[in-house]
Known about the structure:
Layout: H1 6-31, H2 33-89, H3 94-175, H4 180-192, E1 198-202, E2 205-206, H5 215-223, E3 230-231, E4 238-241
Parallel strand pairs: 1-4
Antiparallel strand pairs: 1-2, 3-4
Helix pairs in contact: 1-3, 2-3
Amino acid sequence: MTTAPPEDQRRLLDVQALDTRLAQLAHQRRSHPVLARLTELDSRLADVETSLVASRTAVKDLRRELAKAEGDVEQVRSRAARDQARMDAGQGSAKDMQALSHEMGALSRRQGELEEVELEIMERLEAHEGALAELDAAADVIRAQKAEAQAERDAALAAVDAEARTVAEQRAALATGLDAGLVTLYDRLRGQLGGLGAAALRGRRCEGCRLELNPTDVEAIRKAAPEQVSRCEECGRILVRLPEPAKG
Length: 248
């Protein structure tokens, strides 16, 4: 049977309160709303950046396609200009001039076709460049939101960490000198019972499991030696007896 000075048992409740606060702070650190916000922003940014890669690739391909189309048009224009120069100079026989005339007509039609292709590519390129600009702007907005959320996270977690350090120092000071056997039992139960290893007995209720105890058990606990460490029959936690309120 574990025994410990009554004062140590009562101090254990204060240690438990500080341990509970430390657990709450750890939970706050893990579950602060800004962390979920950052996860959401990271996901949105990843989606936008994936779209940006595809959009940049499309723009690059269209610019290459446009350069080729412009080259094709320029090649036909150059050929037509040379033919026109020959026509203007009257070089060659009538048959040659007739052939040049037919060729210039064909080149004119070809140039028209190529210019239509060029125009269609330019229109597609313009649309893709507009979409790319919108994606870039959207990414910039999300990056700014992420930077703001990161600053909020850093400030919030710094505040939590500062309080946790203070509470840990208070806990260490309060636990110093407590009965070693009592502390060992408490730490073991705390690990087994979700962080709550000791609770007060108020009336017939265990403040750990919040259950009403059997009157016979409560009476036995009340009559036990002050040094005896009692346990809750329902949850197994250390049950600390507090002085009974004075009856008026």
